[in-house]
Specification:
Elements lengths: L2 H16 L5 H16 L3 H5 L2 H5 L4 H8 L5 H13 L13 E5 L8 E5 L1 H17 L13 E4 L7 E3 L2 E4 L1 H7 L9 E2 L2 H4 L4 H11 L5 E5 L2 H15 L13 E3 L6 H8 L7 E3 L1 E4 L2 E5 L8 E3 L5 E7 L28 E8 L6 E11 L4 E7 L13 H15 L5 E9 L2 E9 L6 H15 L1 H7 L3 E9 L2 H9 L15 H15 L4
Parallel strand pairs: 1-5, 3-6, 3-7, 7-8, 8-9, 18-19
Antiparallel strand pairs: 1-2, 4-5, 10-11, 11-12, 12-16, 13-14, 14-15, 15-16, 17-18
Helix pairs in contact: 10-11, 13-14, 14-15
């Protein structure tokens, strides 16, 4: 029996019995009061009257009434840019020691999100909560003695004046506690390699030296890493290299679209645990095995608000309208989609993180990420969110016994008519027309707005299949390979033209 593993598991079990679940409304009110009180003397806090808000009988209501919505462009232009000019006490006391470079999905300059010491600690505390939740899963004691492969971005942070910059996964990994470093792979030396391909090569070379029990990272990049390790060692699946691999923890991306292609690399399925670690904070984690939903972290430095995800509240660029209503956590409804707003210990205020979510269990405050506001296809009233697209593609996978781990789509004009033009990352060789008909049918059955659009402005659907690796090469072309990178699922016409030109160049034929 694994004695050390049993001790660790026992300590985690004990902690879980001692720590009680917070009451959502009370926890969130306490978080908001602490945020306001800490930042009341900052430039932001003075402008929006945080002291007066704290004196209100309805603090959440006064906060919502006084402070406007901010997306990245607005808060960066009006506030965070001042930090780069040398100012302190801007939206949070002092100056942040880190800025997280958000990979984004547009190919433009990375966003620079402030990360304070308080946020680093909040991420660490939520990480401890997640580790504690592992005892809810049916894992043997020896699992807690195995090593963990964390495939994030480079931990070799770049010094910029009085702070350091890197992706949030790199910042988090560079701050892991000393007791955990013995379990952490690929280890500090390899993790600091900036070139993603070189880092993966070194991981493949060293893979047999490690006893990996768990993987953590974005599904598409973990899948590529596994393929490289399998290829390098000339084996049929990853369990021939890591026989004790039991758990995969994804991050901020729905695992379902990747499940079929992912499982093809395994001798047996893994326990999949979802997490929601964004550049702006660690928002949620999966707490129990009976669901694939994640529990919002309500008592650890993040205050949540929710805007109903409806077309009339979303601008074309993915921002929300000034008159969009906000719903507190006490009034959310199950299975309805919401746009997420957060205020945090890093000095983000009523911040549009860009994700859409739905509550799968209101009492437990469990959610699923359903997409991005920028990935909302509504040019001709079709009102397609990413989760609706993914559900339809999963039907195609089952109907035709194929794998579609990646896709992108745009509404394009052909002879003054609109079509939805899809590119599916798949090795399937079947005709695009057959896939288009099945996809069109699945979306029409599942989505009333899409069905109506198909009788009016949306004239048809076009589908082309391409090598899934081309999606990764597209990200590499835009200097976004590995780490927290997520493929853009919906493109505007201009971006889509660049994509099609890229595909033609890569294939050497007319796409």
């Amino acid at each position: 029996m694994a004695i050390i593993g049993s001790l660790i598991k026992g300590l985690i079990d004990l902690r879980g019995k001692i720590v009680s679940e917070p009451v959502a409304e009370e926890a969130q009110l306490e978080v908001l009061k602490k945020l306001l009180n800490t930042a009341k003397d900052t430039s932001f806090g003075k402008k929006y009257g945080f002291e007066e808000i704290l004196e209100s009988e309805d603090i959440p209501g006064a906060f919502a009434a006084r402070v406007p919505y901010f997306d990245y462009n607005k808060i960066n232009e009006e506030w965070w840019s001042k930090m780069h000019e040398g100012q302190d006490n801007v939206t949070w006391p002092g100056k942040p020691p880190y800025f997280a470079l958000s990979s984004g999905t547009t190919g433009k300059t990375s966003k620079r999100i402030p990360v304070t010491e308080e946020m680093v600690e909040a991420i660490r505390q939520t990480g401890i909560k997640q580790v504690g939740a592992l005892t809810n899963f049916d894992l043997q004691s020896d699992f807690f003695e195995k090593e963990i492969m964390m495939l994030g971005s480079s931990t070799d942070l770049k010094e910029e004046g009085d702070h350091e910059e890197g992706e949030i996964s790199g910042i988090s990994a560079s701050n892991i506690p000393s007791w955990f470093r013995g379990f952490y792979k690929p280890g500090e030396e390899i993790a600091q390699i900036g070139d993603w391909d070189e880092r993966i090569k070194r991981i493949a070379e060293n893979a047999k030296n490690w006893d990996i029990g768990a993987l953590s990272g974005i599904p598409s990049w973990i899948e590529l890493m596994l393929k490289e390790v399998i290829s390098y060692h000339k084996v049929s699946n990853i369990h021939e290299i890591w026989p004790n691999l039991q758990v995969y923890t994804s991050g901020g991306v729905a695992f379902e679209p990747y499940e079929k292609s992912f499982n093809a690399l395994l001798a047996h399925p893994l326990t999949v645990i979802d997490t929601y670690l964004a550049s702006e904070g660690f928002l949620a984690y999966q707490q129990r095995p009976e669901t694939n939903s994640m529990k919002l972290v309500l008592d650890n430095g993040i205050y949540f608000e929710f805007v109903p995800f409806k077309a009339e509240y979303v601008n074309e660029d993915g921002s929300i309208t000034e008159n969009a209503p906000v719903i507190p956590i006490t009034a959310v409804k199950q299975d309805e989609e919401y746009i997420l707003l957060i205020s945090t210990v890093s000095g983000t205020w009523r911040y549009l993180i860009g994700d859409t979510i739905k509550f799968t269990d209101v009492e437990r405050h469990e959610i699923r990420i359903t997409g991005r506001t920028k990935f909302f296809l509504n040019v001709v009233g079709s009102q397609l969110s990413v989760n609706k697209m993914s559900d339809a593609l999963k039907e195609l996978e089952e109907k035709f016994d194929i794998k579609i781990p990646e896709f992108t789509v745009a509404a394009v004009r052909i002879d003054n008519d609109f079509y939805h033009s899809w590119y599916l990352g798949s090795d399937a060789t079947m005709p695009g027309e057959e896939l288009a008909a099945a996809l069109d049918e699945a979306l029409s059955i599942a989505n009333k707005n899409y069905r109506v659009a198909r009788t009016k402005a949306l004239k048809g659907v076009k589908v082309k299949t391409v090598d899934p690796n081309l999606f990764h090469e597209w990200n590499a072309l835009n200097k976004k390979k590995g780490g927290q990178v997520k493929m853009e699922k919906v493109m505007n016409e201009e971006k889509f033209m660049e994509w099609e030109a890229f595909i033609k160049e890569q294939q050497g034929t007319t796409a």
